[in-house]
Design brief:
Helix 5 crosses helix 6 and helix 6 packs parallel to helix 10. The protein is 39% helix and 18% strand. The protein has a single domain, classed as LmbE-like (Rossmann fold, 3-Layer(aba) Sandwich), CATH 3.40.50. The longest helix is centred in the first third of the chain and has 19 residues. With 291 residues, it is of the alpha/beta class. Bound molecules: zinc ion. The site of zinc ion has 5 residues, from loops.
Length: 291
């Protein structure tokens, strides 16, 4: 056990130092661009990486899609994933596998049980899983934090060693200010800073520019450093730790109140079901959506 813990902690050290990591690692993000925003300077460190996109990156709102200049959700999604491919090439990332779950952008919280069960299957044998923090910044990011916490918990309850949960940064609101590229402060759980070299900064800047449909991100996110930390245990029946919902402030269709209601229902369902009777890969058709 001690040796295993050493290996796990050295994965964190290697990540911060920007060294190669050979352990099987899974990065789970909500949207194509989150991996570059949060981990663009380090994503090329992984030699055994599976990259999971939980949404197809397109909202279920025809007016929103038209506003972005596309005729259909499929066309918008396809453009976003082409941007992703280009960004990954620029960062030097070489995932062994990419999975896309195809839930609409903004609706992940409606599928928490299914998402958790899928990840439970996929996380077998994975050493570390890196995802968003629960921070009230975006409903889909929070849904990823939920599903990863409960997928790993169900593995433990099934007698299977779960991967270590880690987090990269996205954005959230604290004291009415938008914070990007850092974590909400937790004195018991520090964030570790990974400084990017000049070449890494240049690549990350270019990779972010590849997301032509999401040019706002260039204004919000810096490229000098990234932060990582171990994921704390979250209470998903309560308001996210920063104490505010950025999605309420932005007037998004799903409010913080809605999010908690859906999360509470999913928790009731997960807590009353047998974790050892999880579905197999074959039960989910879109597992075929290996890109
Ligand atoms: Zn996102």
């Amino acid at each position: 056990m001690e040796n295993l813990d050493k290996t796990k902690s050295s994965l964190r050290l290697r990540l911060i130092a920007g060294e190669k990591i050979f352990d099987p690692v899974m990065i789970i993000v909500a949207h194509p661009d989150d991996e570059t925003i949060g981990m663009g300077g380090r994503i090329s460190c992984f030699e055994s990486l599976t990259l999971v996109h939980a949404t197809n990156g397109a909202p279920n709102e025809p007016t929103e899609i038209r506003k972005s200049g596309f005729d259909s959700a499929e066309a918008y999604s396809s453009a976003r994933f082409s941007e992703l491919d280009q960004a990954l090439r620029i960062t030097g990332a070489k995932p062994l596998g990419c999975l896309r779950y195809d839930y609409p952008d903004g609706e992940l919280v409606l599928h928490l049980v299914e998402l958790t069960e899928r990840l439970q299957v996929q996380l077998h044998g994975v050493r570390a899983v890196i995802t968003h923090a629960y921070e009230g910044g975006h409903p889909d990011h929070d849904a990823c934090a939920f599903a990863v916490q409960y997928a790993t918990r169900r593995l433990t309850e099934s007698g299977i060693e779960p991967p270590r949960r880690m987090e990269f940064t996205s954005y959230f609101s604290l004291k009415e200010r938008l914070h990007a590229g850092s974590f909400w402060p937790d004195k018991h759980n520090p964030g570790y800073v990974a400084r990017l070299t000049r070449d890494q900064r240049r690549r990350k800047t270019e990779a972010l520019k590849a997301f032509k449909t999401q040019q706002w991100i260039l204004k919000v996110f810096g490229v000098r450093r990234e932060m990582y930390r171990y994921a704390p245990h979250y209470d998903f029946r309560s308001l996210a730790p920063p104490g505010a919902w950025l999605y309420d402030a932005n007037g998004w269709p799903i409010t913080g109140h809605d999010w908690l209601r859906h999360a509470g229902r999913a928790l009731d369902q997960l807590e009353s079901s047998d974790p050892t009777k999880s579905p197999t890969t074959r039960d989910y058709k879109s597992f075929d959506a290996l890109r």
